[in-house]
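Hey L., structure's done. Input below.
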Amino acid sequence: MADFFNNLLFFIIALGVLVTFHEFGHFWVALKLGVKVQRFSVGFGKAFYTYKRKVGKYQDEVEFSLALIPLGGYVKMLDERVEEVSEEEKPRAFNNQSLLVRSAIVFAGPLANFLLAIALYWCVFVLGLSAIQPRIAAPAAHTLAAAAGFKAEDKVVSVNDEKIITMTGFRLAMMEAALSSETIDISVIDSNNAEQIRTLSIGDNKILKTEGDPIEKMGFRLWVPVIPPVVGKTVPDSVAEKAGVEAKDVIVAINSDRVSSWAETVKLISASPAKLITMVVLRDGEEKAIELTPASRKNAAGEDEGYIGIYLERPESIAEKLYTTEEYSALPAIGVAIEKTWSMSVLTLKVLGRMLIGDAALENISGPLTIAKFAGETASIGLVQFLSFLAVISVSLGVLNLLPVPVLDGGHLLYYLLEFIKGKPLSDRFQQYGQQVGMMLLLMLMSIAIFNDIQRIFS
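Output:
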């Protein structure tokens, strides 16, 4: 339950930040171009907080409000299609503006999201993003990675000449490359510290056609070292501390099962919630049997698991192979942030295009429940991870809002393009019909996303 409220809290924070910036884009440009703004709302429905203030060169009184449903927001401008407008104010009504002014105001919302993403990525790269190195585990037989000759501990340094620093960067680069070309040249440093180029043949393999992780389907999994079962320290007042477990103890057995790695130790302890076990440790060259009963807690799947409160002792040599930090000074970080925002935007469009032509499974669409889960998880890791998450969602919001679907900003821009071609505005009836179709499409998309979320929870 605590995780649920944590996820909900950071989901609301994330959505509030993104929606506020999006709507501020519309609001700011409208003010600068002389359009009268009446309300700036974050959220829909009944407002629970309202604040009025005079803004702009005309000193119009604008109502700023927070509403109960935090799934969006809007900027209400003076418009003859919505209300009666006095003669003196007609020149400042949105519907009476030139095509260029209306287009600028509409485009400003998605643009604000892209600018926010650049600012967030800049913060991430200046602060330094601690991440996993792009080191590959031995690929399973009959996978594309195995056919390309990938070996255990291969460290990726570039994908089609694009420099790779982190595992996340590798996955994104692979997604983009696989959607664009039939072969991918991947440069790696192998376990003997020699640089090799491995060519991955995608062919007509539709990597997004089925549900699941497309990168893993190619055969790429994170290399996980075998870590010795050595206790680094115990949690104060934990089961382990009370039972007499000490730092530097080497765990050699759990009950009758001998263990040689930290992963085996965790697996056996997790399988024994609230059950008495005998843990054999090697201390000062002698084996010592310790009886203890692991405490019980719920794991991510909602199942009971055991834990005793010990931290592993991580050898520095392993840490050097596992972790890295992507960090830049202030000026270079601007270019990296712009490039990152651009590449994420292009990748989002490519994936949406594949879905449109049926080359990507609809099961890959995520909804608010999944987004809320990631919001809570990244926030619990740290500020930099949460900012990185916000940047990704901001890019997605910007791209989605530019799609030529009525009710979205892109739909309005489509109307304006048709108006430019025709030389006059589209009829109110046509626009109304388009809005209804757009709303139906959005509801269908949201239904699929929520259905996928629920399936993930119960799968």
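The chain has 13 helices and 17 strands. The first helix runs from residue 2 to 32.

-- N.
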